[in-house]
Amino acid sequence: MAQHTSTGKIVLFYGVALAMLVFLLKYLEYRYLIHDLSVEVYLGVIAVFFTGLGIWAGFRLTIIKRIVRADETGNIISDEESRKRTGISKREQEVLALMASGLSNQEIADKLFVSLNTIKTHTANLFVKLDVSRRTQAIKKAKELRLIP
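User: That's the sequence. What structure does it adopt?
Assistant: Structure tokens below.
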């Protein structure tokens, strides 16, 4: 729901900005500043403005920022530090991410080119390290710990 609200605000912002820009151009046209320019020039200016604005907004929205969180003492730790602190290996983190994407143990095994028993071992280790008993609990806790997005 928060995603839709944010998107709605962006669309509303673009709409208001477009209306203000059109109003400004029409005001200037009628106010004696620009008489010789055609409608195509106005549309070109608006297109360039919104192209630049769109590129800027897209860049701002898609920047991958390093997610940090505070531990119990208030110190900032990174995802890598959180992974190391929980004792989860990089391979177990891969299994966890694939688990979060909805794959079964067999599908994870096929994707990582390992045996089903290896995936079951990684899963059991993850359950112990995250102190959970089900896949859904493991995924939820991993997201809280910022181990997976």
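DSSP finds seven helices and two strands in the chain.
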